[in-house]
UniProtKB/TrEMBL annotation:
It is found in: Cell membrane. InterPro entries: Virul_fac_BrkB. The chain crosses the membrane at residues 44-73, 115-139, 151-180, 200-220, 232-254, 266-294. Keywords: Cell membrane, Membrane, Transmembrane, Transmembrane helix. GO terms for cellular component: plasma membrane. It holds the Pfam family Virul_fac_BrkB. It comes from the Bacteria. It is a multi-pass membrane protein. This is YihY/virulence factor BrkB family protein. It comes from Sphingomonas chungangi.
Amino acid sequence: MQDETDNAPQHQRFERTREFAHRAEEAGKGFFGKLIAKISRDNVALMAAGVAFYCFLSLVPLLAAVILTYGLIADPATVADHIRTIITVVPHDAAKLILDQLVAVVTASSGKTGFGLIVALVIAIYGATRASTAIMAALNVIYGQQDEGRGFIMGTFVSMGIIVGAVGVAVTGLLAATILGWLQTVLTDLGPVALIVIKIATWILAALLASAAIGGAYRFGPNRAPTGWQWISMGSGIATLLWLAATVGLGLYVSSFGNYNATYGSLSAVVVLLMWFYVSAYAILLGATINAVLWPQKHRRAMAAEARAQS
């Protein structure tokens, strides 16, 4: 009799644990089912291809905006050297094409000062808005806002704001890359371990910058009611990890298995860059889709908590 009494609490805990596991399993099935259905319904892969194309068209204006902004405090040639440091995370062929464009932008920007520099910067930011406008349109679809609704002027303002934020993130990364480059020079005598630490720090920096940029796009891109700023959400965290994994994976595939030169010839670098833009865009839109699927659940929990607080 005593044994049955002692075992009762254990049995109850076991039953609660099993019930919780069952509910978690059912919730997981429901979540993944909704996620897959939404990816298919919203044509996320097709939207990612469109975003990648407009990012490709916006590459040169965006590089110009970064160089002109950083050029306010540094020489354009110095900016180019710092970009070379941080761009090592990009697949080699894509990085080569970006660096070729970088040289052209530095050459064109070297003579601009004062008011001419400001005008050139505004033009460059506006030229890069094709990428942010495409991202905004895709996020509106994912979050169920089929109509942009903000008007041309407000939409352009938000689009340029996203580019300004992206440029700010890039400049922050360049400043941090300068510090990493200095540390690499100082720590060279300490052997290969120090260089490995610097390489790891470069990837951590890339992850933090990507997470900040993705979080900003999720917050300001779609035309929906303000939801509060989140540095890290489930979607942005997964999108950042997927972006890092896709970048490394694409780089390894291109260098080890993909013979793009034989197939595309002189266009191979363009194809690799477009592929990198595509996997990056897909990761970002997939993260937004995850947030969109999770949001109704979070909203219901918040409403229930508010109702309990008022009762």
